[in-house]
What does this fold into?
Amino acid sequence: MAKSGKGNNYSIGHLAEKVGLTPRTIRYYEELGLLDTVKRLEGGRRIYTDDDLRRLKFIKRLKILGLTLAEMKELEDIYKIHRTNKKVLPRLLELLDRRLEETRNKIRSLSRSEGELLQYRERIKEKLKGIEE
It folds into this structure.
């Protein structure tokens, strides 16, 4: 890691290690346009900054919350057009609300499945008692 006046610079391997991603994943995010244009040294070696580190942590967080890469790209495109979070944040909120509703629906469905499994399990236990006697 090299220090510059504006913060830290990272190789792709060091950055990948810091954010828990693979170098291949980072390159893929670059190709999709989720990561700003990365600086390169002579010889083509990529150099990443603290901004890239923060950006990748944000992408990783959104992924954990269930956003797709396409949705993240949409947010990035909105930001590139308007250059403000004032337009991005309401859309992010819509996406998060949709994920929240999907999650709640899954929880309800799983809860019903759990109840059915418990009932069926009890019926099987009762049948086993009858067979053993």
Q: What stands out?
A: The first strand starts at residue 2 and ends at 4. Residues 1-5 have pLDDT under 50 and may be disordered. The CA atoms of residues 30 and 101 lie 30 Å apart. Residues 66-133 form one domain.
